[in-house]
Fold:
Amino acid sequence: MSTAHRTILLITILAPPAFPVAAQQSPSVQAVRIGPNAGYLTFGTYFTGPGGLRFSNDNAAAFGGGLEFPVWRDLSVVGNVLHATSDWSFQEVPLIGSVTIGGASLWFFDAGLRLHFPLGSARTVLPFVEAGAGAIRYAVNNALLEGQATNLALVGGLGVTTRIGQRLGVEARVKDYFASFKSVDDAAALGVSGRRAHTVGFLVGVSIGL
Structure:
């Protein structure tokens, strides 16, 4: 038997076991994933003013997108951006009680690590926790107040991803943005100061493997 014939025979013998092994490994391989998400934000008390006046935002819808980049079997680097518009809500205004004005815009940016806890050997249901840091860009623009400020934030969350096939996934999660807020320009001139507060988001989205 020639050397070429021996090589072909060797490949034929070894190839069949290799394909099942590859098929078994492929579901566990994590791809870079991107996708849109949307949800609902609840805001804490961001600011305080003279006489016990408190400033916050009315709860609002939000939309954005995310990126997930795997670095280990169940560990990924994630990045997210989220945008919302909301009315400013003033509580405990003397002689009035509460006042609401429009024009508040918020951008949330964060990056961090996500750790999955797959359920079952199929690895199609993936609960996860995540933690990281980012910023909240806060701006208000109306006839009464105008200004903006960028606030550093600590970010944590938990959720679950359900994989539908190799590329498509559906995701639901809860995220908490904790920041020490700076007062926006015009409000600071009126004696309004920022405070530490939580913003909690309830989000759903789609992730697409590239």
In short: Residues 7-11, 13-29 have pLDDT under 50 and may be disordered. The chain is about 15% helix and 65% strand.
